[in-house]
Design brief:
Belongs to the short-chain dehydrogenases/reductases (SDR) family. The protein has eight helices and seven strands. The chain has 259 residues and is α/β, with parallel strands linked by helices. Bound molecules: NADP nicotinamide-adenine-dinucleotide phosphate (NAP).
């Protein structure tokens, strides 16, 4: 399917690995020029170079922490005039509800709620002026059903979801859509590190921890970054202009819901 977005320009935050990289790859494959970001410059530049040569698109890389004010200023300066915004950042650490302090919540809110909001506030006006734009926020299945050990994620991402629900309806008259993609378990470094935590806690191997978790997913496997990226690219496409303010769960059926 031709996504109809060749020649457009996208900012994909936190995109040297994992789900962000999946989105960057799928957009590049659709002919979209990119601004990519991550903290580690080496992995970021390696992936930027690969996408440039594989898909013949322009790729600019901005190495910085997207959750810091300085990092946001750097990325926003490089991304002026983009048509597509994909927000993403690392997820908060696991823990117990009674252990988190105010500072832990502030950090999680900064990374997983206020950072995407800052990017939307900075880049939506340009899209609205042009009468076309797409925003996809990478959140989590924890927005639909809480994950006990990820209480910081449950809290911060739900706040972002409320902001998107209201804002998406206000920018839609200008041809701009905002939607959220809710990953369940995907095979990325983040999933490896969560499996590592379970393995250490239960005295089992990482492979055993993964097998246990795969057994809880109706598809009996983790998702891939390519599947995730393809869905993101579709939401950014010309075909998705009537999808507004939605929360799309990509979890292999793991969240047991009727709707
Ligand atoms: P990942 O494989 O660990 O990749 C994270 C990417 O983001 C890397 O490129 C990393 O590069 C970059 N990054 C992290 N923190 C950053 C920051 N502060 N500023 C700029 N770049 C940053 O993680 P993932 O699995 O793709 O997860 C992406 C998001 O989806 C996370 O918020 C995660 O909690 C959420 N999620 C993931 C899953 C899953 O199963 N994978 C499920 C639900 C939710 P650097 O380290 O070099 O900065």
């Amino acid at each position: 399917m031709d996504l109809g977005i060749g020649g457009k320009r996208a900012l994909v935050c936190a995109s040297s690995k994992g789900l962000g990289l999946g989105c960057a790859e799928a957009l590049a494959a659709a002919g979209v020029n990119l601004v990519m970001n991550a903290r580690g410059a080496d992995a970021l530049e390696a992936e930027a170079a690969r996408l440039r040569s594989e898909f013949s698109v322009d790729v600019q890389s901005v190495a910085c922490d997207v959750t810091s004010e300085e990092g946001q200023a750097q990325v926003i300066a490089a991304a002026q005039g983009v048509d597509i915004l994909v927000t993403n950042a690392g997820g908060p650490p696991p823990g117990l509800w009674s252990d988190w302090q105010r500072e832990d919540f502030i950090k999680a809110l900064d990374a997983n709620m206020l950072t995407p909001i800052a990017f939307m506030k900075a880049l939506l006006p340009g899209m609205m002026d042009k009468g076309w734009g797409r925003v996809v926020n990478i959140t989590s299945q924890s927005v639909r059903a809480p994950i006990a050990v990820l209480g910081l994620s449950n809290a911060a991402r739900t706040g972002l979801t409320g902001y998107v629900a209201g804002t998406s309806r206000q920018v839609a008259p200008h041809g701009v859509t905002i939607n959220n993609l809710l990953p369940g378990i995907h095979a990325t470094d983040r999933a490896d590190s969560l499996d590592g935590g379970v393995a250490a806690q239960q005295g089992i191997s990482v492979d055993e921890a993964r097998a246990q978790r795969e057994a809880t997913i109706p598809t009996r496997r983790y998702g891939s970054r390519q599947e995730f990226g393809a869905t993101c690219a579709f939401l950014c496409s010309q075909h998705a202009g009537f999808i507004v303010g939605q929360n799309i769960l990509l979890d292999g059926g793991a969240t047991n819901l009727t709707m």
